[in-house]
């Protein structure tokens, strides 16, 4: 039982054999996903939820942004497998779980070489049970300040472990029915030898900008300055 790898032509796959089997490459195929996810469309920026052998999973395809993204949407410059975004995120999730941090369990990753120098990739993680992202939660109802403090403490805990989240926004924070927070989507994230105070603060500031933007976009959206001060209080206590 553990993490295993195999090659299939130009494709390389790593997987957790406690969650998925050696036939897991089929889970990355568009036709299989669409047939086994209630008809979900596999497209840019959309997480696909599905079940396999009784395990709830989430599929994510990597996409390029900007002008390059419009030209070669699903491919990236390839150097070494270990440097690809998908391999880095898969292994970062493994490391964070070993540190006891609340992140999804990585189930499988697939990287396909596109000669001469490009690749395309996708990641599958275990779904966090009974959870919604913070955007969905705050559109539905407010959180008490104790929950905001708890979230601040959690972010500080990641920072104490030198974790830099490249896109800490409300949609990348999950809240379970039992009141536990998880962080997700660590694409372009990194575990530093030492996380600088500037990087840590940039994570917190990015979350604030996300919440402010969502408040202007959604009515209702249950977020107040008092909530933010509670998060800052929790963060300071957790540093």
From TrEMBL:
Q: Where in the cell is it found?
A: Cell inner membrane
Q: Which domain of life is it from?
A: Bacteria
Q: In which pathway does it act?
A: Bacterial outer membrane biogenesis; LPS core biosynthesis
Task: Give the EC class as a word.
Answer: transferase
Signal sequence region:
none
Q: Which Pfam families match?
A: Kdo (PF06293)
State its Enzyme Commission number(s): 2.7.1.166
GO MF assignments: kinase activity
Its keywords, alphabetically, are: ATP-binding, Cell inner membrane, Cell membrane, Kinase, Lipopolysaccharide biosynthesis, Membrane, Nucleotide-binding, Transferase
Q: Which reaction does it catalyse?
A: an alpha-Kdo-(2->6)-lipid IVA + ATP = a 4-O-phospho-alpha-Kdo-(2->6)-lipid IVA + ADP + H(+)
Q: Which residues form a coiled coil?
A: none
Q: How does it sit in the membrane?
A: Peripheral membrane protein
Which Gene3D superfamilies does the record match to this protein?
Transferase(Phosphotransferase) domain 1
Kindly identify the residues recorded as the active site. 167
User: Which family does this protein fall into?
Assistant: Belongs to the protein kinase superfamily. KdkA/RfaP family.
Q: What does this protein do?
A: Catalyzes the ATP-dependent phosphorylation of the 3-deoxy-D-manno-octulosonic acid (Kdo) residue in Kdo-lipid IV(A) at the 4-OH position.
Any idea what this protein is called?
3-deoxy-D-manno-octulosonic acid kinase
Question: From what organism does this protein derive?
Answer: Microbulbifer salipaludis
